[in-house]
Write a structure and sequence with these properties.
Layout (H helix, E strand, L loop, with lengths): L12 E10 L19 E9 L5 E5 L7 H12 L7 H5 L2 H8 L13 H22 L3 H6 L3 H5 L13 H10 L4 H9 L6 E3 L9 H13 L4 E5 L4 H15 L6 E5 L6 H9 L6 E5 L7 H11 L5 E4 L6 H9 L5 E2 L8 H15 L12 H16 L6 E3 L3 H6 L6 E2 L2 E2 L15 H5 L10 H6 L9
Parallel strand pairs: 4-10, 5-6, 6-7, 7-8, 8-9
Antiparallel strand pairs: 1-2, 2-3, 11-12
Helix pairs in contact: 1-4, 8-15, 9-10, 11-12, 13-14, 14-15
């Protein structure tokens, strides 16, 4: 079959379609934690239409169910900013394009560069990156891996971060990271560039037996690092982690991390964690409010004597929040999010800052849709920016294998490197018809209507 040849100059964005996709993850407890109960992992989904028949850019934002309609409203607003533009206009200077996307002076007031407007910017730019990959016939990670350091620098808007990284210092980092790049590319092509850890056994809704069953299964699959949700009750958490250590032991090379998903105040986090440090977690993730930079710094300092680190970033609003986390020695891990930050461009800005501070960049992950995009981000960080392997979360979700066009795969506890052109987004036939809110066949029936109400009322 002959492939149609496109170029950035002959592809123009002519329109778009926004679809509110919601998946009933509350059915099986996938995604459950101390803060998020009864969630339905949702993909505010955008298709960028072009003047070339059949050529569509696909991007997503992310939510937990209710609230997706607000993100979709914003996607409709921000997508208008790219309609009528050629891909050459958008990609010839992506740093300039990124600045343009966040610079509507009126919508900026309800951001700026954060919250629902930034989710929409991410969704639109994720679709632009997907479209660019399809034009070049490359996966997104390979677009950037094939760039010169100077071209990578042009992807970034450096406003607000030049006290940490400048275009000049970024260029120096990227040139230094050229050493060994060829070998890292070979590892990527051999599916050995991105080690995976798993949360499959760790969701809070799982019973003890279910947790143990999933843990044994993931050990058999080759995993050595596992994450577990905590934060609702000290005694319950101690029982769960004790059961985990009974299976894993302490001296078999297995590591655990734990995740509180923002439920504690700073003093509560420190006190609570003193009851869990005996189980030797590598880090506690999101121990407090994600905007509390100094609170994270205080928690990290208090836990350091116990050998427990702090990880955060999945809800960090933008590169400025990450800059402050790094400046304040508030985190041991920079957990960038593919849909919370302003797409690939802002993620690379954070990778560069993390590299400057010697902090590993470990993207937030685990949910359907995110696992597909973040595998690209980890490859970019390893091959292009840091030159160092870290880890990437994976949580098995049967839906992503059924409904996504290019589902992420883990083999021998390593991510299989994506090779399809684009950003690994897009859905199989029938997915939209079944899960579009509120008219899809699942949500239109009585079970679906009841399921979307799960967790609506907080417990008093």
């Amino acid at each position: 079959m002959t492939r149609t040849i496109f170029s950035e100059t002959n592809v123009k964005i002519t329109g778009f379609k926004v679809i509110d996709l919601r998946f009933p993850t509350s059915l099986d407890g996938v995604g459950s934690d101390a803060m998020h109960v009864g969630t339905n992992g949702s993909h505010p989904y955008i298709q960028l239409q072009t003047n070339q028949p059949g050529l569509v850019g696909e991007g997503i934002a992310f939510s937990n169910g209710r609230g997706s309609e607000v993100v979709c409203l914003c996607l409709n607003i921000f997508a208008e900013r790219v309609v009528g533009k050629s891909m050459h206009e958008l990609t010839s200077n992506m740093g300039k394009t990124w600045r343009y996307m966040v610079s509507d002076s009126q919508y900026r007031w309800i951001g700026p560069e954060k919250s629902v407007t930034h989710l929409a910017v991410a969704g639109v730019l994720n679709a632009v990156w997907d479209l660019w990959g399809k034009i070049l016939d490359k996966p997104v990670w390979k677009i950037i891996a094939d760039m010169t350091p100077e071209e990578v620098v042009r992807l970034i808007d450096f406003r607000y971060i030049t006290d940490v990284v400048t275009p000049e210092s970024a260029l120096k980092i990227l040139k230094t990271s050229q050493a060994g790049k060829e070998e890292r590319m070979k590892e990527a092509l051999n599916n050995r560039a991105v080690p995976a850890y798993t949360t499959s056994a760790g969701w809070l809704a799982f019973t003890g037996d279910k947790m143990k069953e999933m843990l044994r299964q993931t050990i058999a699959e080759g995993y050595t690092t596992f994450k577990f949700k905590v934060g609702t009750d000290i005694n319950t958490d101690r029982e769960r982690l004790s059961a985990v250590r009974e299976i894993l032991g302490y001296h078999k090379g297995y590591q655990i991390m734990i995740d509180a998903n923002q439920v504690w105040s700073v003093p509560e986090a420190i006190d609570y964690m003193k009851h869990l440090v005996e189980y030797k977690p590598v880090f506690i993730e999101e121990p407090t409010n994600p905007d509390d930079v100094l609170g994270h710094a205080t928690i990290r300092k208090a836990l350091k004597p116990y050998g427990v680190g702090v990880a955060t970033g999945e809800a960090a609003q933008n590169r400025i929040t990450f800059k402050q986390l790094l400046q304040a020695d508030a985190t041991d891990v920079a957990q960038i999010d593919a849909v919370r930050l302003g797409s690939v461009n802002e993620c690379i800005a954070v990778m560069l800052m993390a590299k400057a501070f010697g902090v590993p960049c470990v993207p937030h992950n685990g949910a359907m849709g995110l696992v597909e995009m973040t595998s690209h981000l980890s490859l970019i960080d390893y091959i292009v920016v840091s030159g160092k392997k870290s880890m990437l979360e994976f949580a098995e979700n049967k839906r992503h294998r059924v409904y996504q066009k290019n589902p992420a795969e883990v083999r021998d506890a390593h991510y299989v490197t994506p090779v399809a052109p684009g950003y690994s987004s897009g859905y199989q036939n029938g997915c939209v018809e079944k899960f579009e809110w509120p008219t899809g066949s699942f949500w239109a029936n009585e079970e679906g209507r009841q399921r979307m109400g799960v967790g609506r009322l907080a417990q008093l």
